[in-house]
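chain and backbone:
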Amino acid sequence: MTPAEVYKAQELVYELQIGQVMTRDVIIAVPEMPMREVKSLLRDRRISGLPVVQSDALVGIISVEDLILALEQGQLDAPASRYMTTRLHTVREDELVVRALSVFTATHVGRLPVVNADGKLVGIITPGDITSGLLTALQAAYHEEEIRRYRASHIFEDIASDGTSLILRYNVPVRDFHRAGRASSRLKQTLTRLRLDPRIVRRIAIVAYEAEMNIVIHSTDGGTLTAEVHSELITVLASDSGPGIADTEKAMEPGFSTAPDWIREMGFGAGMGLSNIQSCADEMRLDSSPLTGTRVEAAIRLKPAEIGASDASWRDRPSTVADG
């Protein structure tokens, strides 16, 4: 698997339910079944264990290890109830796959009976079922993502317009470090689906992340992160109604920060945000005052070789990105 596929698989174990990956066609034994018949079932079906059911109730589980013990003792005519394991570990079909993985890790069993809310046996799950289910889900997710990317990359084809732009706006809460970076991540995902040059997307993602973190750290009530996509230009605007920046020239110096010590101790507020934005953007504009808050606007050109004189005046034009 690629690193991206590994990451997606890790996500899926927290999204997929056990019922989506388990084996539903369960081969069962009954307590009075002779071990000789158990042996034939395991061999013919090429399985290593099966649940034991009596009157629709799960009463045990029997495995190859139990069969070996019966063979060693010469008791193939003994009933399955003599050798089956009655201390059962079960999982429910509506639980997440990560729950089954936890039980497998803790118990070292090779299979888990799956029950419904009423405790009735509805399936069985093995580590192999989980692997197979994850691979199937990964393939489905890959095809879904390709469809999204195709739709996104063709979004403007049927629009009759002299000039079309796409505006993407994200709300950024203040001091929410658990969700910090989510807006810029979603923006990056959208631009990737538009099939923009990965190098351009990377620059925009850095600009957006640094701008988002400034809102998280310094704003009073949060703010908005907005991106406007044109055929030749993308502008990113971060705006908030916070306390503003007293000295904008000083703020542009690498390492200068007004973040409190407790935020620095968390690893944020190193004072590189604005300088990183400036280094990644083709143009940048910073407006800030105690009365109006802070606006950071950056432009990244998509087709530098084709930019005309009109684009050179980007810094002087009024902002075309609406405030959030």
Observations:
- The chain has 13 helices and ten strands.
- The chain has a mean pLDDT of 82.
- The domain at 163-311 is CATH 3.30.565.10 (Heat Shock Protein 90).
